[in-house]
Amino acid sequence: MSRRSRTASTVPTAHRDRAASAAPDDDAAPPPGEPGTGCGVCRRDLTGALVCRRCLRRLTVPAGMSSEQIAVVHAESTGAALVDVWGNHHALARTTTIGRALAAELQILHGTISRYHATIAWTSGGWWLTDLRSTNGSGLGATSVTGPVQLRPGQRVAFGDVAMFFVETARSTAGLPGNRDHATATLHAAAPPEALGDSLELVETPSGAGLIVFADGRPEVCLTWMQLELLRALCRRRREDAQAPPERRGFVATTALLGALPWDSVRPHADHVKQLVRRVRRLLADARADLEIESRRHLGYRVGPRG
CA-based angle 6:29:127, to the nearest 5? Predict the structure, then answer.
């Protein structure tokens, strides 16, 4: 795929398009409010979502792109996140590299994204966005980013042609060095936790994303909505197959996962399942969880204790 040449005045396509049609106050900071109360952008919606549907309509992504092309591949979470056009939240670590490279903590698989495109990091008591001399640039609102710029909750951030919102929850900066503004808040589950084993629980957050919570107090593993639904489907089959022969117990066929999961792609196929499973496996491995997803030819996938 061809790429545009970048100059000092270049603004990513997503920002140029948006700037042409936005209301004058569209990129203004959201009204004051406690992080985690209402929509993370407008603060007016109280449905429990990190970003309301009205605000999500302000985001842009390239035609044909699907949510499976964006994934977090680290286990650490601070509570701050980027929210994409589909409403999925992608948790930020204290330092998160965004890009197409396998080593990037937030992978965005699109041609306008450089291998190492940008970083978002907590430093000096705030969140800072830095473009890494990417080919197609990064932006904040309708402004192109060159040097480090500080982020405020509710601002729209773009990497190449992919735009997201930066949001914080009430617990996003609690415990981070230099923070004196936010108190620790309790994370409330949107549904009863689901046991993944003797020491693990699967929890859905009010935003619709998920967490794997460890009984020993280790940092939880943040999951996108799709990753959460994959583990739910595998856990459900494991319970249903309790009386099946051990060698076949708990397996879910690829075709069944294609039909059961809420894919954003118009025509999801086996490679979508493989990519999703690969990302969850990496999250579990990075967190040293006593859990793994096994694959077996002609049977599909199942979840169970590592070993």
Answer: 65
> Is residue 99 within 8 Å of residue 111, measured between CB atoms?
no
Strands of the chain, DSSP E = 70-72, 81-83, 89-91, 95-99, 106-108, 118-123, 126-131, 138-140, 143-145, 149-150, 156-159, 162-167, 194-195, 200-204, 210-214, 221-223, 292-296, 300-304
209 CB contacts (<8 Å, ≥6 apart)? Answer: 88, 89, 222, 223, 224, 225, 228
Q: What is the pTM of this model?
A: 0.55
Residues paired with 139 in a beta bridge: 144, 158
| CB contact set of 245 (below 8 Å; sequence gap of 6+) | none
In DSSP terms, 105 is beta-bridged to none
Cα gap 82→90, rounded to integer Å: 5
Confidence of residue 42 (pLDDT cuts 50, 70, 90): confident
Contact 157, 149 (CB under 8 A): no
Query: In this predicted structure, what is the pLDDT of residue 206?
Result: 56
Which backbone phi and psi does 292 adopt, to 5 degrees?
Answer: -150, 160
The greatest distance separating any two alpha carbons of the chain, rounded to the nearest whole angstrom, comes to: 65
Phi then psi for residue 7, to 5 deg, are: -120, 175
Cα–Cα distance list, 158 to 87, 112, 143, 243, 298 (Å): 15, 11, 10, 50, 41
What SS3 class is residue 165? strand
- Lowest mean pLDDT, pick from 22-36, 112-126, 247-261: 22-36
| Dihedral over Cα of 118, 120, 123, 127: its sign | positive
Q: Three-state SS for 140?
A: strand
- Does the pLDDT value for residue 187 go beyond 50? no
